[in-house]
Request: fold
Amino acid sequence: MQPNFERKLLVYGLFIATLAGLTFAVSQILLENGDRVLAQTQQNQTSIPHDAKWHESHQVIIFQNPNDSITYTGLVTFNLSKPADVIAFENITGKETTNATKKIWEVGDKKFVPNTLLKNVTEGSVSFNGSGVLAHSTLSNVYTGTYTLNETASNNTSSNP
Reply:
């Protein structure tokens, strides 16, 4: 009886691993073909130092990290332990900026234009569109947050020429 149980456990484990792999592969294929992929993420997170040039003393909670050539559209619902701004940002690496009044964040060899969606908030929901979205505090104090991210990712091959 014991070998039969182990065999069933192995079969179920392989089934789950295969299903997870197929789900990832299908989402990557859809993105490569320019289609949209819908995702939901729920997470608890502690803020980290912002990695943008001249923002190193600031703290951020990154709701959605940027990925090359992908634009995210969605809704983030959040609860933060300290007030912060919620900011969507767009990757403009390799593009000429014609508007000299736009702020630009430099992170390594990439450039992003931030778009402040909400200022000095601790909770709420906001729609966003961009390469990523985060909570940003100009203070160096660490804070925590929980969030739910409902988003659609679409391939944007024109964003990085």
